[in-house]
Amino acid sequence: MSAVAAISLFRSHIPPIRTRVLLTVRALQFKPCPFHCGPSPRLSNSRFDPDGSGKPTTWDAFGIWDDRIDEPILLPPSIKYGTPIPKVSLARVGGASLLGRRSENEDRLRASQISDTVLYFAVFDGHGGSQAADFCHKYLETYVRDLVAKEEDLELVLSKAFHEIDKALATQLNISPDVATLPTAGSTATVALLRDGIELAVGSVGDSRALLCRKGKAIKLTMDHTPERKDERERVKSSGGSVIWNSLGQPHVNGRLAMTRSIGDFDLKNSGVIAEPETKRISIHHAHDAFLALTTDGINFIMNCQEICDVISQCHDPKEAAQRLTEQALQYGSEDNSTALVVPFGAWGKHKSPTSPPPSAGASPPLAAGPENAAPTGQ
To answer: Which residues form the PPM-type phosphatase domain (predicted)?
Structure first.
């Protein structure tokens, strides 16, 4: 049997899927510079240069759907994890914050890069004034950055950062045992850290939320901290606090606060209101995961996670999605501040909601929404 015939017989017995896997692994492991520019067009077996054009292949080339986001492949993480990982660009992230019917917008949002490999996304919803939300918006990122530099576990980073920002806020407000009246300002905090475009860790206190859209379905990444949760209610009571229901049937800690965990609210620290976040870690699968969404209760109390997922999935880009989501909450009757942060992943645009969205009503505000640019334009 000739060598050519033997090779052909061998190849005919390799399943097609295994062949593609072998080609992908070969490209990841043995092509440190896959974006080679040759003198003329050539054919290539590499998924990083499938048409031999020499042009950098992006995640866009891995799908056949509309509204894909054209971002380059992150080669070192792709080699490290053995799967193509697209870049998650801050320029693509969408953010919006609307006043609603409140006199002041106490919501804040933030998206930034805190290291070569880690991205930071956060929403804060202040109450009792904007002091706590402003403080978190300005300083929590710094605590996370310092901890990421020396701590590998992102969940532990979030837990330590939440405690440190809570202590720093107490110092800022001049809290001491001699203070007769403790400040009542507080804030929710929902923070997501994305490392290498694939490792996602989320930490949260309060009732702001994070969700992941996977294959068009919403995966809830956070749990609300309210007295309605039996475990939270029992913890508050065991700490000396009480849970009182108002005339609308809504439970509050000591009759004042609708959440059991927060940054600030120092008058309730001895009643079981803590700054310890619940954390969750999950791997992103860019072939199936379309986006991460962080939202405040102006949206969450009006729309469930799947409804949020469906509204975002109707939109052409994350900036439109964040604006559409906040406006939709107001149309549904929300009177609170409504804030959304939408982070696109590899499957953006792949799983469309069957309902077409109405025309966009306007552009989204900057991603570092603070007191000076919190978009107080809601009706």
So the answer is: 92-345
